[in-house]
Specification:
The complex is a heterodimer. By secondary structure, chain A is α+β, with helices and mostly antiparallel strands. Chain A folds into 2 domains: about 60 residues, no CATH class; about 80 residues, Glutaredoxin, CATH 3.40.30.10. Chain A is about 50% helix and about 10% strand. Chain A has a 4-stranded mixed beta sheet, with helices on one face. The two termini of chain A are about 30 Å apart. In chain B, helix 2 packs antiparallel against helix 3 and helix 11 runs antiparallel to helix 14. Chain B is α/β, with parallel strands linked by helices. The radius of gyration of chain B is 21 Å and the shape is globular. In chain B, the strands form 4 sheets. In chain B, strands 8-7-13-9-10 form a 5-stranded mixed beta sheet. A 4-stranded parallel beta sheet of chain B has the order 3-2-1-4, with helices on both faces. A two-stranded antiparallel ribbon of chain B has the order 5-6. In chain B, strand 9 and strand 10 form a beta hairpin. Chain B has 15 helices and 13 strands. The two termini of chain B are about 35 Å apart. The chains are: A alpha+beta, B alpha/beta.
């Protein structure tokens, strides 16, 4: 039994096979593997007796349930109005410049992915971003580079 | 609106009170009818934006005869410009949980959920600690009710109550046809009370201080206070509890930077109020049109004269186009066409009169979209295009 199969089985035993447990199971796979691969979707489909197309259709609806490979750290820069007004574009440019990748891409070492996202709920401290689940607010082009440098040093 | 309230800052929600056990005990000693009457008499309306009377929602669900019922706290706060629920869950989660427990006792629910938006996952450890304390209190009081956290996964539409149920049931978060309403047929098709975070916190206040005190705040049909999320061109962005019924002018006098050109009330799905209508526009639930009164989930975004309203509208439409669940054509295609349309006018590829066609399209969306998302795109679109038409063209 490979790691993924074991993971899916563990998640299904933890949460249950009923359809209402699908989201926590998908989230559990994301926590471990950073995205939902075709293989993972097929395994969940088999374990839960839900058609694979249905599992895929559900997963692809949610922006946090990635269905393409992502880096270890997914950076989501808020693009909604207040963050846009307070310099979101400069933050993105600083990120792209530092990581040498474009928006939507993942670094070759698979460490970082840069994405944009809709309102993060930090409009009074704009611009804001998430790195995985951690929130960073009142960003400047310099501060985002400092933040990412720390993540890099940890790895 | 019968009158305008001065802008009074209130301190009820965030007041440092840690007497949940006493308040719950006091409530449990009263009859269910008394509690429901207290809630109905308070005039509390849902603080998520839609404004359904909370007491009535509890009453209708209590009257259902199904054995299994649910209480759900809607913490899928995703409206651009809104961040009050996060603050409430951070600073006074026990008040929200107390509101859920009171509701559970009245309707006869044994299970409850907090549907927390994916973006707020960092709140989970503290909320779990709070839940452990809360469950201990319920055990002491003898109430068989347990609350779990259900994590969302980044979909704005899941704040719509029926889409939220679909999401909790492991499906795409697509709104359901109504009726039936959640009070009859909610999560897993069982009677469900679903309330916004702030609404539940207010119900704690009402239980503690009584409906009378709550109604001393606000104006007719918009009783009580409300937590506002203030952002944009303001020297004091943040979260403020204010009385309902204030005019936008009073708000701008306190929160603007002296050069306020417009205020977006109610987030991207709300209304844009231009300077010339500040004095005539009030914040509250009654009425539907700008100039009379503006319902809101609490988002107040301030724009000064350096801002392009074209860029603002472009940003909102980009948001709606991405967040439309895609289920109904008026919303799915409508959002795309509105976005393409304003870009074409701005580039000069379409004449200015094309904006009138787009306004007609928003009328169609308001009438035919399946849920509030598609219907409310018309609010910001028409209020921005009608008041700042020249900025859409030049």
């Amino acid at each position: 039994m490979d790691f993924q199969e074991k993971l899916v089985q563990e998640l299904v035993s933890k949460h249950g096979r009923d359809r209402e447990n699908l989201l926590p199971i998908l989230q559990g796979v994301i926590d471990e593997e950073r995205y939902l691969s075709e293989e993972a979707i097929l395994k969940i489909s088999k374990e839960m007796s839900i058609p694979a197309a249905d599992v895929y259709g559900t997963a692809s609806f949610y922006s946090f349930l990635d269905i393409v490979p992502r880096g270890k750290y997914v950076i989501r820069v808020c693009k909604t109005i207040t963050c846009a007004m307070k310099g979101k574009n400069q933050i993105l440019l600083a990120l792209e410049d530092f990581l040498k990748i474009k928006l939507g891409d993942t670094t070759p070492d698979k460490l970082f992915t840069i994405l944009e996202t809709n309102c993060l709920g930090w409009c009074h401290k704009a611009p804001a971003m998430l790195v995985n689940d951690d929130v960073y607010t009142e960003l400047t082009p310099d501060s985002v580079v400092d933040i990412l440098r720390e993540y890099k040093e940890e790895n | 609106m019968t009158k305008t309230k001065q802008l009074n800052r209130i301190d009820l929600i965030f007041k440092n009170e840690n007497d949940c056990k006493e308040i719950l005990q006091k409530s449990f000693d009263r009859s269910h009818e008394e509690i429901i009457n207290e809630m109905v008499n308070s005039g509390l309306k849902g603080r998520g934006g839609a404004g359904f009377p909370t007491g009535l929602k509890w009453k209708l669900t209590a009257e259902e005869t199904e054995k299994k019922k649910y209480v759900i706290c809607n913490a899928d706060e995703g409206e651009p410009g809104t961040f009050k629920d996060r603050e409430i869950l951070t600073r006074v989660p026990h008040k929200v949980l107390a509101g859920m427990a009171m509701c559970a006792k009245i309707i006869g629910a044994k299970e409850g959920y907090i549907y927390l938006r994916g973006e707020y996952k960092f709140l989970v450890p503290d909320l779990k600690k709070e839940l452990r304390k809360f469950h201990d209190i319920l055990d002491e009081l003898g109430l068989n009710f347990r609350v779990e956290i259900f994590m969302g996964s980044g979909a704005y539409i899941c704040g719509e109550e029926s889409a939220l149920f679909e999401s909790m049931e492991g499906k795409r978060g697509e709104p359901r046809n109504k009726p039936p309403y959640p009070t009859q047929c909610g999560y897993l098709n069982k009677p469900t009370v679903i309330n916004n975070v702030e609404t539940l916190a207010h119900s704690y206040t009402i239980m503690k201080y009584g409906a009378k005190k709550f109604r001393e705040l606000g104006v007719k049909d918009s009783w009580g206070s409300k937590v506002f999320s203030v952002s944009g061109d303001t020297p004091i962005p943040g979260i403020y509890e204010l009385e309902l019924g204030m005019s936008v002018q009073d708000f701008v006098d306190d929160f603007g930077d002296g050069d306020t050109k417009a205020v977006q009330v109610g987030g991207a799905s709300g209304f844009l109020v231009p300077r010339k209508r500040f004095a005539k526009s009030h914040i509250g639930y009654q009425g539907k049109l700008t100039g009379v009164s503006l319902p809101t989930g609490g988002s107040m975004m301030i724009f000064n004269s350096s801002r392009s309203m074209y860029n603002v509208l472009n940003n909102y439409l980009d948001f709606f186009e991405e967040e439309s669940c895609g289920q109904c054509t008026p919303c799915r295609v409508g959002c795309q066409q509105l976005l393409k349309g304003i870009k074409a006018v701005k580039r000069g590829e379409k004449p200015a009169a094309y904006l009138d066609k787009l306004l007609k399209l928003t009328d169609t969306m308001r009438l035919t979209a399946k849920c509030g998302l598609g219907q409310s795109v018309a609010n910001s679109f028409s209020s921005i295009v009608e008041n700042f038409r020249e900025e859409m063209i030049y």
